[in-house]
Each structure stands twice: as structure tokens, then as C-alpha cells.
Design brief:
Largest sheet: none
Distance between the termini: 33 Å
Shape: elongated
Radius of gyration: 21 Å
Order of helices and strands: HHHHHHHHH
Length: about 240
């Protein structure tokens, strides 16, 4: 007697396999769309220090390297949008080890992270080029340049620091903690990996204290750099783990 093929079981297995392949691809793509722009902007735009420089420094440098900076920030914006499909696939992939509430929370935080980061990055695509061009043309008009500088600083404070960084890092840190808590912990390494994700997410959230401009702002800025570097390594390990399963 020939064994009966359980079509429904095979369909479920195939669905999980396809989800895993897409998920690994998205995790790797997320890392690429974060690290590639950072590399380009560091070399051509003094990123991230330029984010705290006045318009008189930032706008001329932006204008001189606009053909490289704008595409880099476009890729950066895509890294924020990727939180949407990543969150949905992670909820599906981790449904066996996490509650539905945790999965829904992950998606909600992913939506928030995508929204905040996209707003923050997109200012460099349309608003800043307009301001840089106007600033360059106002060479003989110091009053107009002062007005443009005020607009640039206000835009950076609101779209950049408030929405893109402050709210963006709050959502990103919460997303990382939620994801770490959803991961299965069958062995010591898995438990350590989950705990490290919680720690990294917490460090990202704490680092937003930089934005309050206290005497320790520089220290919190350094903490943010360290936390984001650790986050990239953590996400790479996560992608490798899912690829091996």
C-alpha cells in the first residue's frame, strides 16, 4: 500500500519555506540599505556629524555632492519602508513561538518605525535640495540666507531630530525588543541572543536622550552609534539563523 500524501501538510511546509526565503532576503536587504548609505554619506557628507552642523556648513557641502547624497538618502528611506514587510513575515514565521498579541505589536511598531524613518529621510530628497539651491543663489543677500538657514535648522529639528531620530529610534528600539522576546529560546545561545536583542533595543531607546541637548549629549550620541552598530550585527546573525533553519 502506497503512503498517502498529506497535501495540506506539504502546503504548510512549502509556505513556511517560501516565507523563510523571503524573510532572509529582506533581512539582508535591510542591512545593505542601511550600511551602503552610511558608507557613502560618511565619505561625501561627513555623516552623521553633519546632522548637527548649521546650514552655513551643511548646505554648501550638500550642494557640492548632491548627485551622490540624494540617491544615498533614497536608499536610506527604503531601509525604513522595509520594516513593513519584515514585520509581517516575522510575525508569520514566529507564530509558533510567540503570541498573536506580540506579533501584532511587532507589526504596529514596524509601521511606526517605517513612518517615522521615511519622513526623516525624505527631507533630503526634495526639501533640502530646494533650500541648498536657494542658499547658493542668495550669495549677495545675507538676510535671505539667514532666513534659509532658519528654515533648514527648523526642518532638521522637526522632520529630522524629532520625527526621524527621536520617534524613529523609540519605535525601532521597541521593535527590536519585541522581536527579541518573540524568538524561540530552545538552548543557551538562543537565550543569549534574545537577551542581547533586548539590551540593544534598550540602548537604542536610551540614546535618544541626546536630543535634549544636555551636557551628556555627546555621550548619548556615541551610545547611539554603538547601539546601531550592534543592531546591524544582531540582524545579520538573525538572518543567518533563519537561513540555516
Amino acid at each position: 500500500m502506497q503512503p498517502t500524501l498529506d497535501v495540506s501538510t506539504e502546503a504548510v511546509r512549502y509556505g513556511r519555506f517560501v516565507t523563510k526565503q523571503w524573510l532572509v532576503g529582506l533581512l539582508i536587504t535591510e542591512l545593505i540599505t542601511v550600511l551602503a548609505p552610511v558608507s557613502v554619506l560618511s565619505a561625501r557628507f561627513h555623516f552623521p556629524d553633519i546632522l548637527r552642523e548649521p546650514a552655513s556648513v551643511a548646505l554648501p557641502l550638500f550642494a557640492a555632492n548632491q548627485s551622490v547624497i540624494v540617491p544615498a538618502y533614497y536608499v536610506f528611506m527604503l531601509s525604513g519602508l522595509l520594516y513593513l514587510p519584515m514585520s509581517i513575515l516575522l510575525r508569520r514565521q514566529l507564530s509558533a513561538s510567540a503570541t498573536q498579541t506580540a506579533g501584532n505589536l511587532l507589526v504596529g511598531l514596524g509601521v511606526a518605525t517605517a513612518l517615522f524613518q521615511t519622513i526623516g529621510f525624505s527631507r533630503w530628497l526634495f526639501a533640502v535640495p530646494y533650500l541648498a539651491d536657494a542658499y547658493e543663489q542668495a550669495t549677495a543677500n545675507p538676510t535671505l540666507r539667514d532666513s534659509i538657514s532658519l528654515l533648514y535648522d527648523t526642518l532638521n529639528r522637526y522632520a529630522g531630530m524629532t520625527i526621524g531620530e527621536h520617534l524613529g529610534f523609540l519605535a525601532m528600539g521597541g521593535w527590536t525588543i519585541c522581536l527579541a522576546l518573540m524568538l524561540p529560546r530552545p538552548n543557551r545561545f538562543a537565550r543569549w541572543f534574545s537577551a542581547s536583542g533586548i539590551l540593544i533595543g534598550g540602548l537604542i531607546m536610551v540614546s535618544i536622550a541626546e536630543h535634549f541637548g544636555t551636557a551628556q549629549a555627546g555621550l548619548f550620541g556615541l551610545l547611539n552609534f554603538i547601539a546601531n552598530t550592534l543592531w546591524s550585527v544582531w540582524m545579520l546573525v538573525l538572518a543567518v539563523q533563519h537561513g540555516r533553519q
